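Give me the 3D structure for MFS transporter.
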Amino acid sequence: MMPETTIDPRQIIDEAPLGPRQYLIYFILFLTLAIDGLDTQITSYLAPVLAKEWEISMANLGLVFGIGLAGSAVGALTLGALGDALGNKRIIVIATIAIGVATVAMGYANTVTELAALRFITGFAVGGSLPNLIALVSQFTPKRLRASLITMIGCGFPAGAALAGLMATWLLDSEGWRSIYHFAGYLPLLLTPVIIFFLPESLVSLLKRPDGQVKVRQIFERIYGAQLSREVQFRWANASDKVVAPLAAIFRDGRALASVMLSAIFFLSLMNVYFLSNWLPGLLSQLHSTPHEAIVATTVFNLGGMFGALVLGRLIDRFGYARTLCTSLLCSGACMLMLARFGFTGQSLQLAAFVGGFVVLGGQGGLNSLPALIYPDHLRATATGWAIGTGRLGSVTGPMLAGALLGAGWSSADVLSLTALVPALASILLAILAFKLMRRSGAQ
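Predicted structure for MFS transporter (444 residues):
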């Protein structure tokens, strides 16, 4: 039993009401993720201009997009684990600087190879930043609001991606594509000092350092206004005092099966998300009405995703992740099946697209909070990085599989119907995972 002068920091975090300092932390993390989304998506909007100026086909730019996804997967796996070992804030700062420098350098690129190499760096940094952001949010959030705030801050990424489109529309003709890269790169560099001065370091990692007790006390006095005796010692229950290999740790102590299943769930979910992101406009234009309506429906689909993430995050906190996310995944499959088999046009198509985005993209936003809900604090960035990194393989598999099926003569309706099975399978795996974790918790 802990002595009376020992406090678990989570007790203070869970019991304290949210105040201005916490909201400032969440806002900075939201901005960081928004800039990540902007710098990730900006190349997509500039690709036609690059292809024309460099006299290459759009297909040749596929290398840039593919290597960006590969960098994101590698970054999530490696920097997620490093964040748990060395400190989440430290990795966020390094990643943000790397994103800024590489994006500015893109403005000086003259070949596809140069652009692809820089895109790998930005993808690596963005992929590594996300699990550390999620881990830091979860650590400074009361348990009762954890999923809600993770999904809310996660909306920063699509918001930044949307801002990239606006920036390209406003500035491309007047400033040129190189200036847009420069502007997009300066934003994370300007944000870096704000992160350094106002964002706290992970409490778990601080408590592993010689001056950790002093640093943690200072954080609680500054953020929570807690007046604590100098004799009080902080100890994060169940966290290791030694810096070990976090990636190996998520496969020890009975966590191996959960980690494998989590990877499979993210693989299936991201396979579905990226399949729809890449193919939805084309499939809808073949199945329903005009290409213009299909484009509008795809935009509405993304808006539905932002609303879905916010609502589903709150539902997870209220009813638990298993009920909420399993239901969302099953509804995803049902929506895809309806889009494939029922004739939607006009407003009915927009409504169906909104509901589809709500459960598909919103469900992925809610799913991003899952590792933070089922893994201990000192492994959250690693577990999130593992899930997102391995799940990125699905982001490549989904679009490729759809392309192969369409090339083999499958109809758009048949492809959508088949892929509706993907979220249903993910729901089954999630239900099994939740059951096993519940049994394990009951046994302990």
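Strands lie at 6-7, 233-234. Let me know if you want a second pass.
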